[in-house]
Structures are given as C-alpha cells and as structure tokens.
Amino acid sequence: MQQSATDDSEGTTDGDSSAYARPPDVWERVVRLIMRDHGTGRELAGRTFGQRPPRRKGIEMEAVTAAWERYAAGRTPRRARNAAGAATWLNWTQYPDHGPDESLLGPVRGRRVLELGCGTGCNLAHLATLGAVCVGIDIAPTQRAKAEARWGRVPHLTFRTAEVTEFLAAARPESFDVVLSIFGPVWFTAPATLLPLVRRSLAPGGVFAFSHRPPEHGEEPGGPLRDARAVARWDHSAREWAGLLASAGFSGATAEVIDPPVGESVGTLVVRAEA
User: Fold this and answer.
1) Contact 41, 221 (CB under 8 A)
2) Quick check: 131 pLDDT over 50?
3) Given 34, 52, 89, 154, which residue has the most CB atoms within 10 angstroms?
4) Which residues pair with 176 in a beta bridge?
5) Measuring CA to CA, which residue among 258, 275, 76, 89 is closest to residue 174?
C-alpha cells in the first residue's frame, strides 16, 4: 500500500527546502509504518496487474494515517509567491522555482483533473485557476483541512481524504482526463496494483504524469530498506516505468531526469503517458 504525497510544494515539502534534508532515520520510520503491510518486493512481484487491492484492517490504516499525519506536521506552508511573483504555480521537482510547469499536462481548461497525494493542495489549486475541474485526495485528514482553509474559495476545486487505491477502485471508469502525482502515491504503491486503477480512471487520450527522485545506483525497486525489513519506495528507472505503463495499457510513455539546480546533486524523474 502507499500513502500520501510527502507534500505538495517544491515536490517534497511545503517549504522551499528538500525533504531529503530530513534525517534519514526519521524518513525510514515513516516509510516502515506506511509500507509494512505490503510485504517484501518478492511477494509483491507475484501480484498480477488489475488485481483489486485487498481490504485493509482498520488498525493498519490507522497506523498509515498516523505516520503521514506526523510527517505533515513538520512541513512549513508554501510561500505566498514564487520567484516570478506568481501566487499559484505547479512544480514537479523537489526544488523551488526549478523544472517544468503544468504544460507537461497539455491544456487543462475544462478538463477533469485528479491529483494523488495532493497534500495541502497548492499544485492542484494552480490548475483550478487555469480552468480545470479538480479533485485532490490525500490520506491525512489535516492535509485536507489545510487545503480547504487556503484554497476553499477557488472554484471547481474539491479535496477528499482517501487512500489512493480504494478511491480509484470505487471511482467510475473514465472519470478523469488528467491524473498526476508529485512525489506521491506512485512512489509508494505497488505498480501492479496502482497503474491499472489509474488507467481505468482515465478517459481515452487522458494524461497520467508523475515525478519522484531517480533511483540510486544499486537500488532495487520494491526492495527492503537498508535498515528495516520493509518495502521501500518504488524506485524504478525511466525504462522500467515505460514497460510497467505499457503493461497496464498506457501508450506513448516518456520519461526524463530533470537535472538539479547548481549546488544540488539529486535530479527528478518525470514520467508521462497517455490512456
């Protein structure tokens, strides 16, 4: 299983600093809690595409929600304006004022947009101001409260508290024209479970786009954390994501690693495909 985006601004935090500056032991404790019901990478590899996600016990979901609530509590609000002076903007990377913008999604006016792991809603609010009809989901209830407090008056913008696979499984087929996730559930959910659900939710020609940190050399997708017997992030390479997306019924998959700004060493993997 997965959960929430690590947050919605500058890729991984509500502030302008990278979440990777957070002490590794703190990050790993969060991941251990949110991923422990997934089993090992080998166990997940045996699951088939299109399999409906198993129902989770209440105590497991409580632990997942609590983990992301604790993580969200340490995030600072996104800046009121970016370097260009804009009050709303979309950022795919973990760095402020860096990387591609919403043009990666194509025209959004009038389109139905879903963000998986929307955090406090800053990226999604930007798309709503451009005329999209937006829904954002996040497992952490306080994230919804923050999003509604800041963006509740923006037209055609709705926030929901929900676990991603359960939300998608319950949604009607072809409910959305665009699905995006920025350092969110795609990074934390078994592709065999998530990708077919996303594909099912998209209308023909719909766009699916997401970003996360590129895999480090020697990392095993879905493999155990260095210091914990739990499944880590799904750190697939661009080529691996292309194959997984094709297997789930997507076409035209593209992926590139956005170079980091000067002084930083970790880039951002950005992936896009069509239904």
Assistant:
1) yes
2) yes
3) 34
4) 202
5) 275
Query: Quick one: tokens of 198?
Result: 């996303």
The pLDDT of residue 122 is 97
For residue 137, the one-letter residue type is: I
What is the pLDDT, as a whole number, of residue 58?
A: 61
Q: According to DSSP H, which parts of 202-270 are helical?
A: 238-247
207, 274 contact by CB (below 8 A) = yes
Rounded to an integer, what distance in angstroms lies between the CA atom of residue 272 and that of residue 108?
15
Q: How many CB atoms lie within 10 A of CB 58?
A: 8
By the 8 A CB rule, do 22 and 15 touch? Answer: no
Encode pLDDT of 204-222 as tens digits: 999 999 999 998 765 555 5
Closest Cα partner for 144 from 5, 239, 266?
5
CB 267 within 8 A of CB 257: yes
Write b or e for each residue in 4-33: b if 16 or more Cβ atoms lie within 10 A of its Cβ, otherwise e.
bbbbbbbbbbbbbebbeebeeeebbebbbb
- Residue 235: which region, alpha, beta or left (left: phi > 0; alpha: psi -120 to 50)? beta
Confidence check: pLDDT of 40 > 60: no
d(CA 112, CA 224): 36
Beta bridge partners of 254: 272
Alpha-carbon distance of 236 to 254, in angstroms, equals 14
Residues 125/151, Cβ–Cβ less than 8 Å: yes
Q: How many other CB atoms are there within 10 angstroms of residue 56's CB atom?
A: 16
